[in-house]
Design goal:
This protein has 400 residues and is mainly alpha-helical. The protein contains 20 helices and no strands.
């Protein structure tokens, strides 16, 4: 009897241990799958996220975690209705609460409610200071308003929290390169982004952006070396041609720029580079056609227009040169005004009127995409100002 009792006790203990071990294994597995899928969200790796969602579904017994990730997956496909339904079934408490809050903020962004989203992300940044997601989202919101310095500050917070995040370094490099006129900062951050092994799908574009910044600084050799890792297209060929030109390898430069023109006749940078090289070779009459083609795409590129003026002057077409010079001066005046307004907009991130003025000026310059971007930034700033002053977002008392 004692032996039988002892066997029952031993078997019960073994079963209890097995159950506890199985539960612990499931808990660890569930957390690992969730963390890996959330990391995929941070890196915009939607295929990896989809795999994580499916793995959690198969594991079973983890519906809240599955719904959080499934809502993110739905948002990545633009299905905000399903995302909202999933999140409504998860209680915003416990370990999942910061993730639910962040995704609710993303839902608000998807609905165009940027001011509400900003408040959500600000709360998340305050309550969970070790989470990078709120700072990344705030950076995107501030950039959408043209508040570039504030956006840069938020990206610096992301980098502080996630030092190996290639995406934050790339976003900061783009800000430096295209918005803050900080070429040195752009080069440094592109280099740091590439050192952090970006996904194969994104690496080529980062390399090209890096090469552009290097060429602007005159680092042709390093730019050329970087471009060796990128598959050939018209942009890559043009950048390589510019490097060869800077390194006095003119024959190589000509071969490359002509390849670029053949591969994509609409590649504007190749048109301009061809015109420049004809001018440098003392053949201004040959520079006229590619420069005119480039101006047909962007009529207000005053530096390109000035190259055309010089080509016409050196070709003896004095009257046409005078006409083109007048157009160049008008474009230069508009660009100067755009730079002035842009500087003021950066210094005044909540000024909607400035952003409307920039949008109107971009329309005059034929920069339709930028006009849409700045008009959206103006609307965002207008709604934020309306809410902070107690007006309804649609109140028309805030005027241009």
């Amino acid at each position: 009897m004692r032996i039988r009792l002892l066997l029952v006790v031993v078997v019960s203990a073994l079963l209890a241990g097995a159950v506890l071990g199985w539960r612990e294994w499931r808990r660890v597995r569930r957390q690992r799958l969730f963390d890996d899928a959330w990391a995929a969200i941070e890196k915009r790796d939607w295929q990896r996220l989809e795999t994580g969602v499916e793995s959690l579904r198969r594991l079973g017994g983890c519906e809240p975690q599955w719904r959080v990730l499934h809502s993110a997956h739905s948002m990545s496909k633009g299905d905000y209705s399903t995302a909202r339904k999933d999140l409504s079934m998860v209680k915003p408490e416990g370990p999942l609460s910061p993730y639910v809050l962040l995704l609710n903020g993303q839902l608000l962004l998807g609905e165009g409610r940027e001011s509400d989203a900003e408040r959500v992300f600000s709360v998340a940044a305050r309550d969970w200071p070790d989470l990078a997601g709120p700072h990344r989202a705030l950076a995107a919101i501030y950039r959408s308003r043209g508040a570039m310095v504030a956006a840069s500050d938020q990206l610096q917070q992301v980098i502080r929290l996630v030092p190996n995040d290639y995406l934050a370094f790339r976003q900061l490099a783009l800000l430096c390169h295209r918005d803050l006129a900080d070429n040195r900062g752009a080069i440094e951050n592109y280099r740091l982004s590439l050192e952090r092994n970006p996904p194969d799908a994104e690496r080529p574009e980062i390399v090209k952006e890096f090469a552009e910044a290097l060429i602007m600084r005159g680092d042709y050799r390093e730019a050329l070396e970087a471009l060796e890792s990128v598959e050939i297209d018209a942009v890559t060929l043009t950048l390589k041609a510019d490097c060869c030109r800077g390194l006095d390898r003119r024959r190589d430069g000509w071969d490359l720029v002509l390849q670029a023109r053949k591969l994509d006749p609409q590649e504007r940078r190749a048109m301009i580079l061809e015109g420049r090289m004809h001018m440098e070779d003392g053949a201004p009459e040959k520079a006229i056609e590619p420069l005119e083609q480039a101006l047909a795409i962007d009529p207000h590129d005053f530096s390109c227009r000035y190259r055309l003026v010089r080509a016409l002057q050196q070709s003896g077409q004095t009257k046409r040169a005078e006409e083109e010079l007048a157009k160049k001066q008008e474009s230069e005046k508009l660009r100067f005004e755009l730079t002035r307004l842009y500087t003021r907009a950066v210094e005044n991130p909540d000024n909607a009127i400035l952003r409307y003025q920039i949008a109107d000026l971009c329309d005059r310059l034929g920069q339709r995409d930028l006009a849409v971007w700045w008009r959206n930034a103006a609307e965002t700033a207008r709604r934020a100002n309306a809410l902070s002053s107690g007006q309804m977002p649609g109140d028309t008392r805030i005027t241009r």
